[in-house]
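During the no-cost extension, the postdoctoral fellow (Dr. R.K.) reprocessed legacy sequence entries with the updated structure-token encoder. One reprocessed record is reproduced below for audit purposes.
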Amino acid sequence: MGTDNLFHKKRIRRERELIRRANIRSGYDVVLIICEGAKTEPNYFKALRTHLRLNKENIVIHEGHKGNDPQSLAIAAEEASTKERSRDPEKQGYDRVFVVFDKDAHAGYNNALQKIDGLNKRFKGKFEAIVSVPCFELWLLLHFGYTTKPYAATGNKSPCDNLISDLEKHIPGYAKGAMGSFEKTKDFLDEAVKNARLLEQHQETARTDNPSTKVHHLVECLRGLSKLS
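Re-encoded structure tokens follow.
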């Protein structure tokens, strides 16, 4: 009986120690990621974080914010960063803050970009807008090949709906919010980064943002941190 009780206490201590260690931040940047989507983007970045073996205390994926429009996300990023700073005055809070959103048909898109520019002036450039035009699914599409095809609304379909129709050729049955988008594309991650870079260069010369994505900036940041972990 006494031996069983001692074993039980030791097991509890081991479990507590594992939890304590898991909650300690590692010695690399602390990153906040705020996403527009309720499932697609958070699920993707959680899976990427696991794949890269990054500490979830360092790579924080913010959920539960009010409103998913770009302006609301910019405000949520500011509030989350301020709360993090005030919770422990001795820390500088997040080293980087990434705000992930689509242009699509959002009326407040440009206002959100201006808001993030303003935050960068206050917080020394640690905020970055990770924008996709028309939507995040362009990043997934670039895993399967390079494209500069612009997307527009047709009939009752939005630009993003039309892009998803192209994506379904590579991921049959794809739907926003579905699980597993990272797992279905991870083998082509290097290809996606290469294609996104080429597209960014092309669109700067062409002076258009349709289509475009900056998701590769966030992916490359996380991959760089993975090498330090």
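The chain has nine helices and five strands. The domain at 26-228 is CATH 3.40.50 (Rossmann fold). The remaining legacy entries will be reprocessed before the final report is submitted.
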